[in-house]
Amino acid sequence: MPDLLGAAEYQGPTPAYVYDIAAVRAACDQLRAQLPAPSDLYYSLKANPHPAVVSALHARGCRAEISSVGELEAALAANVPPQNILFSGPGKRDCDLDAALTAGVRDFSLDSAHAARQLNAAAQRNETTARFLLRVNTEVAAPGAGLAMTGLPSPFGADVAAIEADPAAFTKQSHACFEGLHLYLATNLSDEDALVEQFTVAIDTAERVQRLLDAPLRTLDLGGGFGAPYAHKGRLPFFPTMADRLARKLDTAFPSWRLGQPAVAFESGRYLAATCGRLYTRVLDVKQAHGQRVVVLDTGIHHLGGMSGLRRIPAIRPQLHRHGTTQETPEQTPTMVCGPLCTPLDTWARSTPMAEVAPGDILSVPNVGAYGLHASLVLFLGHPLPAEVVVDGPTHVDSSQLHVHRTAVTSPV
User: Which residues of the chain are in CATH 2.40.37.10 domains?
Assistant: First the structure.
């Protein structure tokens, strides 16, 4: 898989996220080769909605999975056709549905009977017909999941018991047509057996819910949850037997799936985007405090790992790399690594081994193409947004050739 340029070669503005589009394409090809065929693949924009990333994945045949009007705008800006967009997520507002329908989106994922009635009213109001996948909250949680999405009280999906109690609520809408099922059980799984087990639970649940609804499934979205390294060196995991194991399971549950009845789909954000991104930062200060070395950077929790919902506060302890040293194994000293924010919470590590650095040195954090800038506290304390730089596989890029993009932060509607 392509490797990004090292910090010794990067001399552009900092802090900066650099996205290597060659790594995006390689990750997409690698994941597709491990999925049962035929199947569709959605890119979840929540991982990284940068237009270059979205556009590269669309060119590779990925559809877009969005969960906000902002992500809708990002997908359209990347030239994803509205018919290739799935609008998911719980708690959609009427204005969100109207905006999506006006833009030409017709495919939605819904989590309740109320959401089905709401979409039906919106489609009627916009004089069109919409399609929806019913997201299901399974009766058991996914085994081995670090962050379970279903199998527990959750905003995601309708309980099987609720579907059984009133199946007509999901299949008898006049302007919102039932298209199929959506099951997403867990996230960030790197163990192949755990992934196969969660997809097995999803397929078994889909088979049962289809019987309850007594309606054909045109689409079966099995979700994703494919793990990836985050803020540390590492490669994307391989799942060498997953495709065959899932194909055999689908053959039993849905014998015509290879003919597209139903069409099987998967989703990924993290796996597709993680390894494309590296965060570059400059050292602002180095000092001793109470007998410990303290390094202050020009980035911190407001740019990486500051989102409490990701359970990465106060410290994610990212690996920092300083390239170009003449020593193979430079001497390392326990170091407190901090950002520039005026709060003691802006700390990546309390005491981590680190080689000597000086103010002005450029360091880098690998594998932050997913859930980096776009999952951070960028408004906290009003520091400037980091630059976003796009390259396409070169080993060296002169700063004069860099295309710098700064994501706009807009107020909610």
Answer: 275-405
d(CA 18, CA 4): 8
Token pair belonging to 110: 């819904």
In terms of C-beta density within 10 A (0-12 exposed, 13-18 middle, 19 or more buried), how is residue 350 classed? middle
* Token pair listed for 190: 């790197």
Beta bridge partners of 87: 66, 108
User: What pLDDT does 105 receive?
Assistant: 98
* CATH no., domain 275-405: 2.40.37.10
123, two tokens: 């489609």
Q: Taking Cα atoms as reference points, which of 325, 322, 297, 316 lies closest to residue 375?
A: 316
- Exposure of 336 in the CB half-sphere (CA atoms within 13 A): 18
Let me know: does 2 contact 26? Beta carbons within 8 Å.
yes
**Strand 85-87 with 63-66, pairing:** parallel
| Domain 21-273: CATH class, spelled out | alpha beta
Task: Evaluate whether 203 touches 217 at the Cβ level (below 8 Å).
Answer: no
Nearest to 93 by CA among 115, 71, 72: 115
Q: What per-residue confidence (pLDDT) applies to 147?
A: 52
Could you tell me which of 46, 5, 54, 51 has the C-alpha nearest to residue 280? 5
Query: Nearest-CA neighbor of 74 among 97, 36, 44?
Result: 44
Tell me, what's the pLDDT at 380?
82
Three-state SS across 307-373?
CHHHCCCCCCCCCCECCCCCCCCCCEEEEEEECCCCCCCCEEEEEEEEECCCCCCEEEECCCCCCCH
| d(C-alpha 326, C-alpha 119), whole Å | 62
Look at the pTM and tell me if it is higher than 0.90.
no
**Intervals of the chain under pLDDT 70:** 1-9, 139-154, 307-316, 323-330, 394-413
Portions of the chain given CATH number 3.20.20.10: 21-273
Say how far apart CA 294 and CA 284 lie, in whole Å: 11
Q: Is the dihedral of CA 254, 31, 154, 113 positive or negative?
A: negative
Q: How many helices (H) and strands (E) does the chain have?
A: 10, 19
List pLDDT tens digits, range 252-261: 999 999 999 9
